[in-house]
Specification:
Blueprint: E1 5-6, H1 8-14, E2 20-24, H2 36-42, E3 49-50, H3 70-79, E4 87-91, H4 97-106, E5 112-115, H5 118-124, E6 151-152, H6 154-163, E7 167-170, H7 174-178, E8 197-198, H8 216-225, E9 234-237, H9 244-254, E10 259-262, H10 265-269
Parallel strand pairs: 1-5, 2-3, 2-4, 4-5, 6-10, 7-8, 7-9, 9-10
EC number: 2.8.1.-
Protein name: Sulfurtransferase
Keywords: Repeat, Transferase
């Protein structure tokens, strides 16, 4: 079994299997004024539960989508019928699945796979969907393990910039990085961190509506074309730590483990007057 991805064929053959949970984590940036739950209710994979990214993020942080405390994550995931023996399949209708994959891995659960192509591929193949709310899951006990040191803070990023000790890769769209488009978060200006390299997250998936993940070999080519020295540590960042996880997952697939995610990402950096910012205009 692929340690990162499953296909639609694989999942269709196993829907409803004991010991497996299918989780839909569709989410949109606030600027879009679109509800991930509404998209879920309009059509989802049969038997799937909906994971509200806002409910599994730190409620006390001034920055969106920050990694929660272990007990909060464990309680919410357990409520959805997941324990430490459950094989978790995560999917979305857009670009969020790698974030939830990372959160599970962060809390020690490696029995998690992403549905490659997500809901768009499932629907394109004419597979069955359910509408409305999910049937209530039987709650289980999920125990979160102590997390690894895979998150950096703004001060760590600033130190890396000063010492040139890591490559900072920003996965936001070009316009948001350059400062020519809205940041996607009301009240937060666009722009980027000094010395950061912009490789939009779409570079790590194919250009079909299904956005299937590129192979590790293709990802390596993307990084090398952008001038990334793969011998150096990488800090992955984006708008709020969501698409940054796409790069983290792809690096893991390549066997490169010296990466960290700046969880506050531009939502924090762009709001803090004490941090240096640049634009390309």
């Amino acid at each position: 079994m692929d340690p990162f991805l499953v296909t639609t064929d694989w999942l269709a053959e196993r829907l409803g299997a004991p010991g497996m949970a299918v989780l839909d984590c569709t989410w949109f940036v606030p600027e879009m004024k679109k509800s991930g739950y509404d998209v879920f209710a309009a059509g989802h994979i049969p038997g799937a539960q909906f994971v509200d990214l806002n409910k599994v993020s730190d409620p006390d942080s001034p920055y969106v989508n920050m990694m929660p405390a272990a007990d909060l994550f464990a309680a919410e995931i357990g409520r959805l019928g997941v324990d430490n023996d459950t094989l978790v399949i995560v999917y979305n209708a857009n670009y969020v699945s790698a974030r939830l994959w990372w959160m599970f891995r962060h809390f020690g659960h490696e029995k998690v796979r992403i549905l490659d192509g997500g809901m768009p591929r499932w629907q394109a193949e004419g597979r069955p969907v359910e509408t409305g709310a999910a049937a209530p899951a039987t709650p289980k006990t999920f125990r979160a393990a102590p997390p690894p040191a895979d998150i950096v803070q703004a001060e760590d990023v600033l130190a890396a910039i000063s010492a040139d000790s890591a490559t900072i890769i920003d996965l936001r769209p070009v316009g948001r990085f350059n400062g020519t488009e809205s940041s996607g978060y009301p009240g937060v200006p666009s722009g980027h961190m000094p010395k950061s390299v912009n490789i939009p997250w779409t570079a790590f998936v194919d250009d079909t509506p299904e956005r299937r993940f590129l192979s590790p070999e293709a990802v390596r080519a993307v990084l090398e074309k952008a001038g990334v020295d793969l011998g150096r540590p990488i800090i992955s960042t984006c708008g709020s730590g969501v698409t940054a996880a796409i790069l983290a997952m792809q690096l893991e697939r390549m066997g490169k483990h010296d990466w960290r995610i700046y969880d506050g990402s531009w939502h924090e950096w762009g709001q803090r007057a004490d941090l240096p910012k640049e634009t390309s205009v």
